[in-house]
């Protein structure tokens, strides 16, 4: 007689996903989000910059600049795992509103990709919360708020397209940070720093 597969109920110890599997899923998702953000940024840059060097005029101040992120890999490695996980969570939460806005306001051919990035970012945020729960790490509710459609970091005289360009540049930068931080966390927590 073959017994049916057990039905997993929330909190069931028999159905818990391994922490390594949670990290693997989060890494795949963070890498995909970064690839998608790069693709969106490059598409926008190619179509709308028309050879102008807009990146040179992008202000260094993104709406997430108020978050104290490490300057380089050495500083990143100095952070404790709970600080790094909390930083990833803060960065993700800081992009909820801007991505929603971009998905509604960007040119049609990019809106679908931006909506996908928005959805994947929320899924990754949930994954980070699940990892945090498994690691018994508290996540700080603070995140860097976005100030609205035209970010305060962009002077009023600049075009609306520049504001979108600026947000896409910042999203690509932050998604790269998230991806790198997740890889460092997995290396520490799953592979005992043997990466």
TrEMBL record:
Pfam families: Hormone_1. It is found in: Secreted. The keyword Oxidoreductase does not apply. One of its GO terms (molecular function) is hormone activity. GO terms for biological process: positive regulation of cell population proliferation; positive regulation of receptor signaling pathway via JAK-STAT; response to nutrient levels. InterPro entries: 4_helix_cytokine-like_core (IPR009079), Somatotropin/Prolactin (IPR001400), Somatotropin_CS (IPR018116). CDD domains: prolactin_like (cd10288). Keywords: Hormone, Secreted. One of its GO terms (cellular component) is extracellular space. Belongs to the somatotropin/prolactin family. This is Prolactin.
């Amino acid at each position: 007689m073959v017994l049916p597969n057990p039905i997993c109920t929330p909190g069931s110890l028999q159905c818990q996903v391994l922490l390594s599997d949670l990290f693997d899923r989060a890494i795949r998702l963070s890498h995909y989000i970064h690839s998608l953000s790069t693709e969106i940024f490059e598409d926008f840059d190619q179509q709308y910059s028309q050879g102008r060097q807009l990146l040179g005029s992008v202000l260094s101040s993104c709406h997430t600049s108020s978050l104290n992120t490490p300057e380089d890999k050495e500083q990143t490695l100095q952070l404790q795992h709970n600080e790094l996980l909390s930083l990833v969570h803060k960065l993700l939460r800081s992009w909820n509103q801007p991505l929603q806005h971009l998905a509604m306001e960007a040119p049609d051919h990019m809106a679908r990709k931006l909506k996908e990035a928005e959805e994947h970012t929320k899924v990754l945020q949930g994954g980070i919360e699940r990892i945090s729960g498994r690691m018994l790490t508290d996540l700080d509710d603070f995140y860097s708020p976005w100030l609205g459609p035209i970010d305060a970091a962009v002077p009023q005289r600049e075009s609306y397209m520049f504001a979108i360009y600026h947000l896409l540049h910042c999203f690509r930068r932050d998604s790269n940070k998230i991806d790198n931080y997740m890889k460092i966390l997995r290396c520490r927590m799953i592979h005992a720093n043997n990466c």
